[in-house]
Amino acid sequence: MDISVVGLGKLGLCTATCFASNGHNVIGVEKNLNFVEQLQNRKCPIKETGLEELLQKSWDNLTITADIEKAVMNSDITLIIVPTPSKPDGRFTNEYLEAVLKTIGPILKKKDKFHVVDIVSTVMPGSCDKVFKPLLEESSGKVCGKDFGLVYNPEFIALGSVIHDFLNPDMVVIGASDNNSANL
Ligand SMILES: NC(=O)c1ccc[n+]([C@@H]2O[C@H](COP(=O)([O-])OP(=O)(O)OC[C@H]3O[C@@H](n4cnc5c(N)ncnc54)[C@H](O)[C@@H]3O)[C@@H](O)[C@H]2O)c1
Asked: Which helix (H) or strand (E) is 73 found in, with range?
């Protein structure tokens, strides 16, 4: 499969590496240019158990870029794994996620092929229907579930065992706008 991953931090880089290690073509997008440069030079900017070793086996399937348009255009599904820090009232903020979705919407507008947008970041219940879906529909001019897919696929893993837990999940949680997107 052709997969893009937006946000190559503690969870995103591990996720991108795990998919690449399983033979998928992965395009990783990161806005921190220091990370981009290190990864393009095949250096690992994140400390996580087993990550460096797995990266060494996966470089051939991994392209690193800061260009989100190139990543969306050349993949079937985009996993978004950007920060959602807690506010003082305990709710998660969507500001980083919304910034990414506002960029992806106009790219979906240009793309003829069906594309799935997969939110992996931790968000508050209701965010997909109330915030992300309207935002993507408005910025793409397309209909969710028909012209593009929206999926929520959160992780419940802990730092230190991200790679092991991702590759050996107790369960995988998938909420989707339509069956094709869920299956993908
Ligand atoms: N770390 C974990 O083990 C873990 C486990 C479960 C869930 N999560 C959730 O996953 C999400 C990400 O967590 P993390 O720990 O990986 O965060 P992180 O801060 O380590 O990484 C996030 C990355 O996203 C990048 N980013 C932000 N905006 C971007 C943009 N517009 N384009 C490209 N890259 C962008 C940042 O530069 C950073 O490298 C959060 O919602 C978190 O709650 C994390």
From this structure: helix 68-73
Q: Residues with beta carbon inside 6 Å of ligand 1?
A: 6-12, 29-32, 35, 81-84, 96, 99-100, 121-122, 155, 157, 159, 162
**pLDDT for 137-169, tens place per residue?**
999 999 999 999 999 999 999 999 999 999 999
Q: Which two tokens stand for residue 183?
A: 């299956």
Segment 88-100, tens digit of pLDDT:
999 999 999 999 9
Please give the Cα distance from 103 to 163 (Å, whole number).
29
d(Cα 48, Cα 33) in Å, to the nearest integer? 20
Please classify residue 45 by burial: count the beta carbons closer than 10 Å to its beta carbon, then call 0-12 exposed, 13-18 middle and 19+ buried: middle
Are residues 117 and 97 in contact, defined by beta-carbon separation less than 8 angstroms? Answer: no
pTM: 0.98
Say if CB 122 and CB 131 are below 8 A apart: no
